[in-house]
Amino acid sequence: MRKGLGLLLSGTLAFALAACGSNTGGQPAAKTSNGGSTAKQEKTISLGLTQFVEHPALDSVRKGIVDGLAEAGYQDGKNLVIDYQNAHGDMSNTVSIAQKFASDKKDIVVAIATPSAQAAAKTIQDKPVVFSAVTDPVSAQLVGSLDKPDKNVTGTSDKLSMDKQLELIQKFLPSLKKLGIIYTTSEVNSEVQVKEMEEAARKKGIEVFKAGITSSNEVQLAAQTLVDKAQAIFIPIDNTVVASVEGVLTPAQKAKIPVFASDIDTVKRGAVATYGIDYYKVGKQTGEMVARILKGQKVADTPVEVTREVNLTIHEKAAAAFGLTLSDELKNQAKEILK
């Protein structure tokens, strides 16, 4: 009887020690309100992701953000819950989404494109806001300085050189004297690019014709006015125009007026060429930044990052359709020639 009792006590002690050792990571068990204990659990991050409009370039940004976070250890559905909202190109929707994220008390908000970033920054001031694919964060009043963000907002910029884009157009059209630009008048990033292109063109003696729009419904009509005036049409980084780029391409193709873009995805859709950036890489860069902030880095210590790498992409078939030929110089410079 005494021997059986000893065996019973030994088994009970062994079971208790095994239960204590089952807490993951070797961390002490957290006490519950009734004096018991439970294993320490990792906090699930709540992230609000707002995108102004869906088109291939911004969709690539979004994918890059998610992948960048995952590689840094934050996986949607595990230790991260991403609430993705699309504003469908409507400014009022960007505000409603930002207000919802504020009400839901998201741990961090990521905004793709300038209008969504502006709405988030204005509405949410007690949590980090990280933007992506914003051309001029200072002009958009998101930050006072690229090097030292002065609020709860930072992010990545997709700013490109208009001088370089104009030089590219001239390589296809050496006699260029009249350039058309279609842009959204309510997008700050577009206005900045138009001014920079006007300055670049002025130095080369090129006249610029502008067609401003307020919604996607006006894209094709605006493009039609330009084909009657310009020798080529340039599309800046403009979300409303890019989302409806077929409305530019259709009348331009009929009139044989070549269209040049600011992003690679628009070239894939039928524009002639661009010195563009890889928007997936921009998104991934943004995701890595978000991860650093989630791990404790202060927004004030996180400078805005500007994408420096640009690559020449040419759509050979589109160029031919517009009556353009590729020089050996362009072929050698191009990172990618689409057939």
Automatic annotation (TrEMBL):
Leader sequence segment? 1-18
Query: Does this UniProt record's set of keywords contain Amino-acid biosynthesis?
Result: no
Stored Pfam families: ABC_sub_bind
SUPFAM superfamilies the record matches: Periplasmic binding protein-like I (SSF53822)
InterPro entries the record matches: ABC_transpt-TYRBP-like (IPR007487), Peripla_BP_I (IPR028082)
Keywords tagged on the record = Signal
Q: What is this protein called?
A: Sugar ABC transporter substrate-binding protein
